[in-house]
Amino acid sequence: MSDSVKDGPSRVKDKPSRAEKTRLTRRRIVAAAAELFLDQGYGATTLDQVAARAGVAVQTVYFHFGNKATLLKEALDVAAVGDDEPVALLDRPWLEELSAEPDPVRVIELWTNGGREIMGRVAPLLAVVRGTVGTDPDLAAQWDVNEGQRRAAFRALAGLLADRAALRPGLTVEDAADLAFLITSAENYIVATGTLGWSPELWQSTTATLLAQALLGATA
To answer: Which residues bind DNA (predicted)?
Structure first.
């Protein structure tokens, strides 16, 4: 039997499916858009430029995302979780580790470790959004959505600490979530790592200390 015949089934098996091709195309478009948003800003970026950088027709960009605001949302979602798997942030394995950890201080340490990784990916894009929200209603709406998602995440953290009876006396779950949201805001990360020149690791350790003091009090 010739090599071409023997190799035939393998080649057919390795051929990407239509769904895989679609996913790869979307991934290239999102990556191209994120690069352009960071390089030249949201307002200056056009879908034609995104298409050119992704190596696709502009009609393909419109077909998959419809408009630039939707493309930005997708870029932020991918940056937040680190991939394009259809799994929400709070359904990721790292939350299972948090849920199984009995020590509330360690819960906060694990949370800020994950937060450092997320902020490192998403903060540059958030800075682009934050700088344009006053002039673009779509971006303003996107900022509100992102902040709402972050608040929901911190309610989950506050709930984990409350389940361990670790919140300092008089602090409700909602108040704890708001404090955590404030302390670990994207703006604080951008100021710390940009204006102050902190390393992401210093931001992480400082934030973990502040969270423990604010949420756990004397038990920290």
So the answer is: 46-65
Distances (CA, A) of 147 to 87, 184, 216: 19, 12, 24
pLDDT tens for each residue of 11-37 = 445 677 888 888 899 999 999 999 999
Strongest mean pLDDT among 5-14, 33-42, 203-212:
203-212
- Nearest-CA neighbor of 217 among 180, 179, 166, 175? 166
Number of Cβ atoms within 10 Å of the Cβ of 60: 17
Q: What is the pLDDT of residues 84-102, one digit of tens each?
A: 666 566 667 777 788 889 9
The owner of tokens 């679609």 is 22
What residue ranges define each of the domains in the chain, with the CATH number in brackets? Answer: 19-86 (1.10.357.10), 87-219 (1.10.357)
The C-alpha atoms of residue 201 and residue 220 are separated, in whole angstroms, by 20
